[in-house]
Amino acid sequence: MSWRCAAEGRTATAGPALSWGGAPRMSLQTSIVPPPHGRAEQFAAGRRAAAAALAAAGSMKRTVPRAPDGRPLFPQGFTGSISHTDRLALAVVAPGAQAVGVDIEPADITPRTAAFILRDQERHLLLPPLGPYTARDLFAAKEAAFKALNCLGTLGEFLFWQITLSHSGSALSATYRGESVPVRIHSQADHSLAVAVRR
């Protein structure tokens, strides 16, 4: 999956039915955040990405209104999630999924932040030298899982760093209060992308 075309100002697509490392089939679309890169531009870019992801997934409805609590309201049967930086927005739609979460993180995570958001076992087993992930990857994984687990509507209020991450085959497993969701990571030099989909 290349993000080069997105950086050049065109919409990048991972295809209408992306199968990403054994992940459930889903649509992932991106949209550039135009200058001056403020909140309004980020919001609009996120909705453009969501509309494109819905179209690629086969939805006739392409608008994604905002719930009173700020969450995007995707059409019934087309579970989705949106994330953005100040330059790039992306959306994932997984038709028929129970829960979906996506997060993109462009900034490196300081050791102090990593010590706060990651448990001792997560740092020991998932970060080098034993693990393949960066602290930024795991931050994105917890954020994506938080969005997905919040979709379930059964866990009450909690904070993303309370989620526990562990190895689960080719993906991570994110767990909170007995509920879990698989999370897949795509990492590049300038960002980490995490997608959580629960069928």
Defining traits:
199 residues, alpha+beta, Ribosomal Protein L22, Chain A, single chain, 2 domains, three-stranded antiparallel sheet, disordered N terminus, 29% strand
Describe the model.
This protein is α+β, with helices and mostly antiparallel strands. It has two domains: 4-97, Ribosomal Protein L22, Chain A (Alpha-Beta Complex); 105-198, no CATH class. Helices cover 28% and strands 29% of the residues. The chain has helices spanning 4-7, 39-57, 111-117, 120-126, 135-152, and strands at 27-32, 78-84, 88-95, 99-105, 164-168, 171-176, 179-188, 191-198. Strands 4-8-7-6-5 form a five-stranded antiparallel β-sheet. The protein has a three-stranded antiparallel β-sheet with strand order 1-3-2, with helices on one face. Strand 2 (78-84) and strand 3 form a beta hairpin.
Strand order of the largest sheet: 4-8-7-6-5
Regarding CATH, which class of the largest domain? Alpha Beta
Please summarize the sheet with the most strands: 5 strands, antiparallel
What are the segments in which pLDDT stays under 50 over at least 5 consecutive residues?
A: 1-19
The overall strand count is 8
Helix content: 25-40%
Compute the CA-based radius of gyration.
16 Å
Helix/strand class: alpha+beta
Our count of helices gives 5
Alpha carbon gap, first and last residue = 23 Å
Please tell me the CATH architecture of the largest domain by its name. Answer: Alpha-Beta Complex
The name of the CATH topology of the largest domain is Ribosomal Protein L22, Chain A
Percent range for β-strand residues: 25-35%
What is the overall silhouette?
A: globular
Kindly give the count of domains. Answer: 2
Rounded mean pLDDT score: 86
The arrangement of helices and strands along the chain is HEHEEEHHHEEEE
Domain 4'-phosphopantetheinyl transferase: 99-195
Pfam families: 4PPT_N (PF17837), ACPS (PF01648)
Protein name: 4'-phosphopantetheinyl transferase superfamily protein
Keywords: Transferase
